[in-house]
Amino acid sequence: KAGVTQTPRYLIKTRGQQVTLSCSPISGHRSVSWYQQTPGQGLQFLFEYFSETQRNKGNFPGRFSGRQFSNSRSEMNVSTLELGDSALYLCASSSGQGGQPQHFGDGTRLSIL
Amino acid sequence: AQKVTQAQTEISVVEKEDVTLDCVYETRDTTYYLFWYKQPPSGELVFLIRRNSFDEQNEISGRYSWNFQKSTSSFNFTITASQVVDSAVYFCALSEAFSNTDKLIFGTGTRLQVFP
Prior knowledge:
The structure holds two protein chains of two kinds.
Chain A: E1 5-7, E2 10-13, E3 19-24, E4 31-38, E5 42-50, E6 53-57, E7 64-68, E8 74-78, E9 87-94, E10 103-104, E11 108-112
Parallel strand pairs in A: 2-11
Antiparallel strand pairs in A: 1-3, 3-8, 4-5, 4-9, 5-6, 7-8, 9-10, 9-11
Chain B: E1 3-5, E2 10-14, E3 19-21, E4 24-26, E5 32-39, E6 46-52, E7 59-61, E8 64-69, E9 74-79, E10 88-96, E11 105-106, E12 110-115
Parallel strand pairs in B: 2-12
Antiparallel strand pairs in B: 1-4, 3-9, 5-6, 5-10, 7-8, 8-9, 10-11, 10-12
């Protein structure tokens, strides 16, 4: 069974630009969550999508948005990039039934210059 | 509010030593799930174990064992006879059981370095 696939693995952007990250969940998983990992803040929950609907959201500004498609694939978008957005962005998928283990991708490392 | 505390920032051991990683959690829920994940240098978070709040039995899987104690709100992880391949950052996490989400609340992680 294929794991969670995130693309791209690495991205370099400059301040003010926008970026879109992609995540393909494990086949059959309907929930996709996104997390930001930084040395200072650790692992922080961004949002969770289930059946194309956002059902939970973390405490991040509106510049961070996402969506989920009918095949459960998800994208995350960050607009007007700031230096502080440099981080490892991790996507995780699960069955979505509450309290289920999340399985993570390798992440996208975003660097803002 | 829910919170997970991993007080040990970094632990260094020599191969074959036993090591215990501590995890203390806070929640007002009576039903919840606890998890441990391993993050090797490659970056991917690898799921190790899930335990629900009603199951206080300790679990052993090879060299890994977990001690869940509701009385002290702790879910500690022990690696017996550590190996160099165990070097990684280990995260403890908490999830609500009856809410409509799989959201995880993570601790700050413990970096384990195992030297040959």
